[in-house]
């Protein structure tokens, strides 16, 4: 349960630098860890947890300095998410999703970005995939549909909803002859009906409920295409919202490794009477997990830094450079679950009893591993792109018509 004597100051001014925000994230780790049971039981982030994250400046991490934020780049955003995941996976997942507001703002008209999304602590949730239908009407669209995986929707200010545009009842062709016109609608959370569907074993506290709308009017200026940014820059790229995702699995795996190493220090092998620090199988398991996690982590951050240099320079990326971050992202989810599975097996029956957090970490990683961005179709898309074939998920590569 979250209490008032935690290390995070409620009313301190939000940080204005990356270092300041990273320190605030570290302060939140014990807060989130103490609240993990409450978060999981509630199947959403409790209000006090959300407010502590908001007060720490978590949701404003991507807001540029000229708009009152610390202006973290994708590497720094991933670091913040990774730190938070050491405390609680669901909270980190919601932070990763909720901070997308300034990224979406780069595709929306200036008036909407400044006037309606101008609060640097604004939280956004929702699914961008085109599961809804948007019928063109004067001044905008009439939107109907049902979307899944609205992570953080229970505390969001705005909600996005991907749609295929129709005109006079017929599908509208997309830009450059694309078979459909994919546009993303954004409206206040109160304009959608949130459905209590998120009954899961993992990431239970993310509140990733379904939501729906029926004949909702959305003004034209509240819609956008990820293929048509309003501004230029490193974040005005379709896949910018995906870059900090690896922070969640990396942070959970790190927490699990730290936990097992701490427990191993005082444990004795029952069969041989040998202390765990002197036991070969324990030594090997810990070393191999550190090796695998370290390699996956370096791949994530190395690829993000290389991508940032190319984007900053305005250099056209080669196919290999474009898939670099994609492969590292998928691998981070795979490796994290593999690491925690091995640690779970190492700890054996003690892992299944509370208050051991290993069971929750394994369930959280198994659930997040099912996200489309961690699935085989992303690898297929990367391989197809490298070979000149047709990607099944071009968006994951930053390709939007």
Automatic annotation (TrEMBL):
Residues 249-375 form the Acyl-CoA dehydrogenase C-terminal domain. Residues 36-97 form the Acyl-CoA dehydrogenase/oxidase N-terminal domain. InterPro entries: Acyl-CoA_dehydrogenase (IPR050741), Acyl-CoA_DH_C (IPR013107), Acyl-CoA_Oxase/DH_mid-dom_sf (IPR046373), AcylCo_DH-like_C (IPR036250), AcylCoA_DH/ox_N (IPR013786), AcylCoA_DH/ox_N_sf (IPR037069), AcylCoA_DH/oxidase_NM_dom_sf (IPR009100). SUPFAM superfamilies: Acyl-CoA dehydrogenase C-terminal domain-like (SSF47203), Acyl-CoA dehydrogenase NM domain-like (SSF56645). Keywords: Oxidoreductase. It comes from the Bacteria. Belongs to the HpaH/HsaA monooxygenase family. PANTHER family: MEDIUM-CHAIN SPECIFIC ACYL-COA DEHYDROGENASE, MITOCHONDRIAL-RELATED, NRGC PROTEIN. This is Acyl-CoA dehydrogenase. It comes from Streptomyces physcomitrii. The lineage of its organism: Bacteria, Bacillati, Actinomycetota, Actinomycetes, Kitasatosporales.
